[in-house]
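**User:** My hope is that you can spare some time for a protein that puzzles me. I have put the entry right below:
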Amino acid sequence: MSNKSKETVTEIPLSKIRDFPDHPYQVRDDESMLELVDSIKERGLIQPVLVRPVEDGYEMVSGHRRKRAFELAGIEKIPARVKEFSRDEAILAMVDSNLQREQILPSEKAKAYKMRLEAMKRQGKRTDLTCSPMDNKLKGIKSASLLKEETGDSQAQVYRYIRLNSLVPEILNLVDDGQIAMRPAVEISYLPEKSQKQLFDAMGANDCTPSHDQTIRMRKAFNEGRLTREVVDTIMCEEKPNQREKSPFRDSRIGQLIPKSIPPDKHCDYVLRALDFYNKYRQKKREQAR
């Protein structure tokens, strides 16, 4: 059925709306969610959710966060646009409506892009286009080039995101946390699950993450049939320049205020001394003002 079919707007009980299967976007009870709850309590819902009718009620297409906010607000019914969608039309609408969000995790984009391309392929679009300079074909999935204009990400970047679906959850979480960059993550995605878990263990044992160069060498070793646990451990035991000079403070502004002559392992001592000096200075000023 065409997505141009007539739609209606009505209020639907939350209990009648089920989540979209394999919804790629996380719904988090964070500060932003609490702000949305307060907004709904004060002003109501500005933009109705989008649902499609299914056999046992309705299926959410766009509005999972708004539905959760209504649950937290204790409101039982939500304004909704009801529209007839086929499964693939619903996937396309669901993915597109969420790609405009300000914050999207790499894992969310990875799953969303893959779902969208697979839906487009099932709709009969071309599948014979070149995918990426990194690989000749995206196996079983339509060319990533078709998402280039629609998402703002380059063809190669779309392909990289889709590759993240091949990561084990432990490593994918590190990508979401910003601890592993995209290019090393893509190289890791070509390793089998067993090797990825060995790598994750090695990262924990050495308290570090792999560089792009290290992941390239691990992938090369795998392709040559010599990537063993010992090889992974050996590569991860290497000391990298950014590890030798790593500051204990995540906020780079702190490091910029510390003299270059102070080694990283002395940064905490330096900051503690500086704070002690400052507190004594403030105490002296207070005494002088009495």
Notes: The CA atoms of residues 148 and 154 lie 5 Å apart. The longest strand covers residues 7-13. The mean pLDDT is 81. Residues 267-289 form the longest helix (23 residues).
